[in-house]
Specification:
Ubiquinol-cytochrome C chaperone, mainly alpha, 8 helices, Ubiq_cyt_c_chap, about 180 residues, Ubq_cyt-c_CBP3-rel, Ubiqinol_cyt_c_chaperone_CPB3, about 65% helix, globular
Length: about 180
Amino acid sequence: MIFGLFGKKNSNAAIIARQYDLLTAAARRPYLYTDLGVPDTVMGRFEMLSASLILYFRRTRSAQRAGQEIAQEIIDAFFEDVDHSIRELGVGDVGVPKRMKKLAAMFYGRLESYAAALESKDRDALAAALKRNFHPQTEDLSLSMHGLADYLLAAEAQLALQGEDVVETGQIDLPHAAA
């Protein structure tokens, strides 16, 4: 049900658009790239948006039914956006499904690895997972993702304080600076 938005009337469209825009804007905040080591590349932006969405999904997993339904529609919007971006990069119709499958597997793999580290509040494990995903081509041992791990842990703590009204109206936002 990745593309659940196609062919159905969506009564939550404004909420979904507002929430997805907030999450996308949060993932594009300049200090993430200038101060926290997120590469300013297509894949770096995909990775940061994925991390932001993972925090969002972790918050909404305990939400009321409306919040969980919106979360599913957010994932649909995310994959629709990824599909559109792949096409804009010039990938032909034949290659899109293969790339989408690979990117979906990447997203769900990150969801699993980040969730385990976030659940245990393991800064080092989260930083190691972030380094593997954000900087897969480097062996540079001095490259640290601890600042980004700290940001994500603080963001998750902040999101846990958000009320159901914020979830159900699509107004969840991530912190503007590392705590």
